Amino acid sequence: MTNETIEPRHFLIRMMSLSKKRIQESKYTKVFTILIILTTFICIVLEGVIVNSHVKVYQELIDNQSIQDVPSTSVDPDKKLAENDPAAKIILIALGLRRLKNENIFFILFSLFQLVLGLDAIVRQSVIQLVAHTVNQILLVVFAAIQVGGTIYKHLDVKQDIPPPEDPDVSWNFNFALRNEIGLVSVMFIFSVLFMYLCYKLYKQFGWNIYKRIGADIEQQSRFKLTQIFFMILKLDAFFHFVLCVFYAVVMTQEKYYSLWGITNRKFIGYVIHIVLTVLLIPGLLFARHGVITENKRVIIFFLVTQIIMGLDFILILVDSAGSWVFWILAVCLAIILCISTIVLSILVSRNFGKGLKPYMQRLFIDENDKSYNQPGTNNAALLKTNEWMIDDEEDYPMGYTNKPNSVHVNSNNNNNTGYIA
User: Fold this and answer.
1) Any transmembrane segments, and where (predicted)?
2) Which site from 45, 95, 157, 189 is most exposed, i.e. has the minimal number of CB atoms within 10 Å?
């Protein structure tokens, strides 16, 4: 039987084709996709209105010379807090208003990340990633509720410690932002309930798809799910770690940590290490993903070392920036928890190397010619043990055959596929 050469398609065409197929697979995938786009749009619009309102009040206070626009980390530039100076409250009010703006920006970035994570979960049909998206939606409700509390406290602080403006056209009104924040919490709560329902429905649908890819081997399914969890954690690291690293790098630069050599060497060295870790963060996560796909233990060991250093860096950040900013403390603690989880999962995943999972580690949008190269009947098919289940979704792979009698094939569409994790 002669093999026909399939003309390779461009990566973007393959990606769009598979994405369209996966999104339109069922009514639940369609509703989930529409809902996540709608959620992101509403969140960005409301947060845009909220941040504009906070910036307006902040600028009005500066124009009225009620507060000073000092650098964001200069909490107490003149040691007024240490001396119990009454003016210290004004410094804290200015700092708190700037923090509100930073929280709004973080919320918008988190919403965009949720959009990517949710759509990616549908395209990759990843149950673990779908659950992570739903949990993140609940976290967004918590963050939105924290914002409401923060705005209420800042409003009370301004009313108590800053005299009212002389200009009748200036009101320092927090109520507009507060109404939108309450609306955001309500909308996010409703969306979270809907996402939990859709997650349950898609869990059953995607669970069957995993069975079709991996087969009836319970241990292999467990290895597959563990690797999916690891890849999902890497994506969470890419967002939370990178955003926090960049934010604190800006903070340290504003505080002129680069000029502390010979004065406070510990802070200078910490600054250099933090900048290096920030630059290497995303490449390191991609490197770790490649190490798991290729089952390279040396890569995983190197990645473990970097993650331990990253975890220590976040602990130092938490100690160095300790204060009353609840949002920041929660974010850094979450980053530390992610570091610990990444280290533990890296060890667990590496223990599964050489146990037959490697053939299922194909890239999501692999070219058809490369797929056929891995089909049964080719030399590379030896990667798949003859007693493993070869299962596939429709139209992912060209038809292939095998002469080995003890290979088991489950194929509802007369096509073969070696499943993937990505």
Assistant:
1) 31-51, 105-123, 135-153, 182-203, 229-251, 271-288, 300-319, 325-349
2) 45
**Exposure class string for 170-191: b at 16+ Cβ within 10 A, else e:** eebebebbbebbeebbebbeeb
What DSSP designation does 67 have?
Answer: S
In angstroms, what CA-CA distances link 129 with 36, 124, 226, 422? Answer: 14, 9, 12, 11
Q: What span, in angstroms and rounded, lies between the C-alpha atoms of 26 and 122? A: 11
Per-residue confidence (pLDDT) for residue 407, from 0 to 100? 40
pLDDT confidence of residue 9: 64
Structure tokens at 307: 């993650």
Amino acid identity at 18: L
The confidence score (pLDDT) of residue 339 equals 92
Average pLDDT over residues 32-46: 93
Lowest mean pLDDT among 21-25, 144-148, 410-414: 410-414
90, 92, 97, 102: CA torsion to nearest 10: 150
The CA dihedral of 248, 253, 259, 263, to the nearest 10 degrees, is -30
